[in-house]
């Protein structure tokens, strides 16, 4: 049994605002890194107790150098650093039996602790007409390799978003969202226990979770926050720019092309200034 963990930061236990996730923000960021490593270790420990033999962890936040490598459980291998073609799910392939998305958050435009989609330039992201956040986009990627995403951790609202896409997914809820930058957090010990319990439940129920099937070619549309970003993203050959909605769309042969093209467009769009 081989398990892939994509570990983001916004949905980690005890993290409520940007002071915990921004490398420039000082003491809380260093605490956030510890919380992130502790959440990952809770999942790894439970997975090993359950019988998982091999675990790969992809640090999936910002520069992707957040997890404290020296404190990560020695049974796990860590993918750290950037750039990576497929970003948060780099390294995931058909050799894995299951994936879990840890520390995830709701999509841009809806409530939830630190809700957003990929970066500040995306207003909405659609795949085959369905609006998705990071959870959905990455789960669609996992579907390419027939890997089921069997658990998500984060606040109570990402649990809802994930369950809508993957009914029956195990949800480790480590905090209740109070606002986009406030939450009622479980104590450390209870959060660890929740993560461990839901990890084991997810692995026990793995056969009931189907990999996410998505029709190909994939129709991907990115609605940008303003026209300047959309104009830059539309430089990508083969894209279609709908000026009325700041939306740039493209067709991808498979999920790898979907991910790489999205990243290329985001890199271009982030070069636009608001004024
Ligand atoms: Zn993040």
UniProtKB/TrEMBL annotation:
Q: Which residues form the active site?
A: 116
Residues given in the record as Zn(2+) 1 binding sites = 8, 10
Keywords of this entry: Aminopeptidase, Hydrolase, Metal-binding, Protease, Zinc
Please give the Gene Ontology molecular function terms for this protein.
Answer: aminopeptidase activity; metal ion binding
Q: Where does Zn(2+) 2 bind?
A: 8, 61, 105, 134
Which residue spans traverse the membrane?
Answer: none
Xref: SUPFAM superfamilies: Dipeptide transport protein
UniProt protein name: Aminopeptidase
Q: What is the species of this protein? A: Brevibacillus panacihumi W25
Upper classification of the source organism reads: Bacteria, Bacillati, Bacillota, Bacilli, Bacillales
């Amino acid at each position: 049994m081989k398990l892939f963990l994509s570990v983001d930061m916004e949905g980690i236990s005890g993290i409520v605002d940007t002071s915990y996730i921004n490398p420039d923000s000082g003491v809380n960021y260093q605490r956030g890194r510890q919380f992130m490593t502790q959440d990952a270790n809770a999942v790894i420990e439970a997975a090993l107790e359950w019988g998982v033999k091999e675990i790969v962890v992809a640090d999936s936040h910002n520069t992707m150098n957040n997890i404290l490598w020296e404190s990560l459980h020695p049974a796990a291998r860590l993918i750290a650093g950037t750039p990576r073609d497929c970003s948060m799910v780099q390294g995931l392939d058909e050799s894995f039996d299951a994936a879990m998305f840890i520390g995830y958050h709701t999509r841009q435009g809806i409530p939830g602790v630190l809700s957003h989609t990929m970066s500040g330039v995306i207003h909405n992201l659609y795949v085959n007409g369905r609006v998705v956040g990071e959870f959905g986009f990455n789960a669609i990627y996992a579907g390419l390799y027939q890997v089921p995403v069997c658990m998500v951790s984060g606040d109570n609202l990402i649990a809802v978003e994930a369950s809508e896409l993957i009914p029956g997914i195990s949800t480790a809820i480590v905090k209740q969202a109070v606002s986009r930058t406030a939450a009622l957090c479980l104590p450390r010990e209870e959060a660890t226990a929740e993560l461990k319990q839901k990890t084991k439940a997810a692995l026990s129920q793995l056969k009931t979770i189907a990999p996410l099937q998505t029709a190909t070619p994939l129709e991907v549309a990115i609605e940008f926050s303003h026209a300047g970003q959309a104009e830059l993203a539309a430089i990508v050959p083969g894209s279609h720019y709908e000026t009325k909605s700041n939306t740039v769309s493209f067709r991808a042969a498979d999920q790898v092309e979907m991910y790489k093209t999205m990243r290329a467009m985001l890199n271009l769009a982030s070069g636009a200034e608001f004024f």
